[in-house]
Write a structure and sequence with these properties.
The protein is mainly alpha-helical. It folds into three domains: 2-129 and 137-204, no CATH class; 266-334, no CATH class; 336-410, no CATH class. It has 14 helices and nine strands. The chain has helices spanning 2-19, 28-38, 40-49, 58-75, 80-83, 87-99, 104-110, 126-129, 143-163, 172-234, 239-248, 311-333, 381-387, 392-409; strands at residues 113-117, 123-125, 138-139, 273-274, 277-278, 301-302, 308-309, 341-342, 345-346. A three-stranded antiparallel β-sheet has the order 2-1-3. Strand 8 (341-342) and strand 9 form a beta hairpin. The longest helix is centred in the middle third of the chain and has 63 residues, at 172-234. The radius of gyration is 42 Å and the shape is elongated. The two termini are 46 Å apart. Residues 254-299 and 335-346 have low confidence and may be disordered.
Length: 410
């Protein structure tokens, strides 16, 4: 129901926002609340004019007028189109207007239940008794009726208080005293609206910050992931090891690790390329779409540049690569720095974004050149192992998590 009502008030609020000058908008809630007391004669005349619509009860007339003024004042405020109407403020304004009606105290007292007819069981009001104290033929009011009478008595006292300042003969003191609760209510409403606007602005800013920081974190993790993949690939570590390390560090985002050209490795270096996948180095793979290429029973071979070659050329290239791999294995068996050779010099690792060093000959060898910056802090291998309860990979994962948490607080 609230959403439907908001759809109705939203276009009205937009119209008021355009036609009502910004300079007087803040004063409208206070003027609407104080109108019955500032100009009781004009207010009474306007309320009586509602009688032309067939509404002759003065209390209802004033409730409609005050409620309408409150609605206009609410919808004229900044942000009203999104905020909508405050029903509590509307009800309080309408109630205050009704209580300022002449004779309202007597009407409310006369509506109290004096008792119930013993003959019919129907409730009998004080007004029906006409002021008599003869209760013959009546039962006492029920507990619910007594509660109702208590409320009506309170409203009657409120009507007496408000009515003193809502007549043309009221003194300035009476007007101020009677109008103070209504003006105070308007001030409370304005403070509430300001608080809600601040809350909504904060939530929007926080949501924007979360989106921004989330993207930043995603970019940061992507950079870390690529750096780790590049380092471990340069160290000639296997794909299984790389995948396992990324998974433990929470950086695995699907796809083939260390894959080139959009995640699908081209079959090069004497390998065979098959539509939709990678056949592996030196492996033959039938290609139904290229069955006539190469003239070798449907097998297609490519060189290091992706150019189709004959089977003889592919075998020569494969044998050459096999010999190079054998030399690397011999070099590894003899010790030394693995996978860091670049023109005879150890390759410098870029770890300016932080991260685990998965390469090198051994711990404490100090044989991995790395880029560091001022105020950065590097952990020893023992500290990493201890952080993981004996596992270097688990320690690295926990330290990455700690680093991310601390960086988010910086």
């Amino acid at each position: 129901m609230g959403k439907i009502f908001k759809k109705i008030t939203k276009p009205i609020a937009k119209v008021f926002d355009k036609i009502i000058p910004n300079e007087i908008k803040p004063a409208l809630p206070y003027l609407a609340a104080a109108f019955p007391f500032l100009a009781p004669g004009l207010y009474g005349s306007m309320a009586a004019g509602i009688g032309s619509f067939g509404i002759n009860n003065p209390m209802i007339q004033r409730a409609i007028l005050s409620g309408g003024l409150n609605t206009v004042s609410q919808l004229s405020q900044e942000g009203a189109a999104e905020r909508g109407i405050n029903p509590l403020s509307l009800a309080m304004a309408a109630g205050t207007g009704a209580l300022t009606a002449p004779g309202a105290p007597g009407t409310l007292q006369g509506s109290q239940i004096a008792g119930n007819s013993m003959a019919t069981g129907a409730p009998i009001t004080q007004a029906a008794l006409g002021g008599t104290s003869d209760l013959y033929g009546m039962t006492d009011p029920t507990l619910f009726q007594q509660a109702q009478n208590f409320g009506l008595e309170g409203l009657s006292k409120g009507a007496e208080f408000l009515g003193k300042g809502a007549t043309e003969s009221s003194t300035l003191k009476e007007m101020v005293m009677s109008g103070a609760p209504s003006v105070g209510s308007a001030a409370t409403e304005q403070a509430y609206n300001a608080a809600m606007d601040a809350k909504n602005a904060y939530e929007k800013e926080y949501a924007d910050w979360q989106n921004f920081s989330g993207q930043q974190l995603a970019n940061f993790n992507s950079g870390r992931r690529q750096a780790i993949i590049a380092s471990m690939t340069a160290a000639q570590l296997g794909e299984d090891v790389i995948s396992s390390t990324l998974a433990q560090l929470g950086l695995r985002d699907g796809g083939r690790v260390a894959a080139m050209n959009g995640g699908i490795m081209d079959a090069m270096r004497g390998s065979v390329q098959y539509p939709g996948g990678y056949a592996g180095e030196g492996t033959e793979y039938l290609s139904p779409t290229d069955s006539n290429q190469g003239g070798m029973g449907g097998v297609v071979y490519y060189d290091e540049n992706g150019k189709p070659i004959t089977k003889e050329q592919a075998m020569k290239l494969f044998n050459k690569q096999a010999k190079e791999e054998e030399k690397k294995k011999i070099k590894k068996a003899n010790g030394g720095i693995i996978g860091l050779m670049n023109g005879g010099q150890p390759m410098e690792m870029d770890y300016r974004m932080g991260g685990m060093i998965p390469i090198g000959s051994k711990e404490r060898a100090d044989d991995v050149p790395a880029r560091l910056s001022k105020n950065e802090f590097v952990m020893t291998a023992d500290a990493v192992r201890a952080a993981g309860g004996g596992s270097v990979n688990e320690g690295a994962r926990r330290m990455y998590e700690l680093m991310n948490n601390l960086e988010a607080r910086a």
